[in-house]
Amino acid sequence: MSKILDRMHAGEKIAIGMVQLTSLPGSSTFRGGSLKTMIADALGEAMALEKAGFDSVMIQNLGDLPVDHKVSAPQLAWVSRIVFEVANKVSIPIGLNLMENDAEAMISISSAAGLDFVRLKVFIGVMVTPFGLVEGCAHIANKTRNLVDASDVAIFADVHDRTGINLGGREIDPDIREAIDLGHADGLVLTGMDYGESMEFIAKAKRKFLRTPVLLGGGCNEDNLANTLKLADGVIVSSALKDTNSAFGKINSEKAKRFMDLFKKMG
């Protein structure tokens, strides 16, 4: 089983730090770049997060925005190499999220590279995103995981992620239930339009599915960390660690260390 999932089931609070890749070949924004440089950059940030005390790193292709609905062959090849190199040089578990929501690609890469988990942003239902309609990927995620015998790769599913609008207008409660009971998600990632709504979502999920790990997917910082950990089983952190205070930036080692020092006192 996934190491991160095991620890969360054991009652540990988990902090996952984000490593954002620059534009990859095959994406809409790629204008040249070295695979060697991308590996070095990703490894440097992952090692900085590990040194700061993070429990895990998640790698994401944020530089590829705007994205298509499927990963291209060049993207798949370069991401596979990057995450393989990172996973073999840091000791903490590695996760993967591709902005294309391509579950088949994510789980295949994770299986081949020995990764610990994937984050799937549209798992059930249909979302209206800035790049068109994105359909839930629960079927292909489970099918692929079985096909490549990747039961040790955990699926963390977003429900009503703030980067899209849920098509159909349902409340979050039935969609959480379907993600777990029908989609077989191992854990949830919940992120509302603001921090308050995020915590409302997490409270609803924990009341009805106490044994399912729930991560706050965005908006966590030093100021709200204590309140967050009263409900959430862990956090995914990006902007609060960056030199720009936004997802588009470089990891600031001092910010990362300060955040984790605080997290360990409260977690």
Automatic annotation (TrEMBL):
InterPro entries: BtpA (IPR005137), RibuloseP-bd_barrel (IPR011060). Coiled coil: none annotated. Belongs to the BtpA family. This is Photosystem I assembly BtpA. It comes from uncultured spirochete.
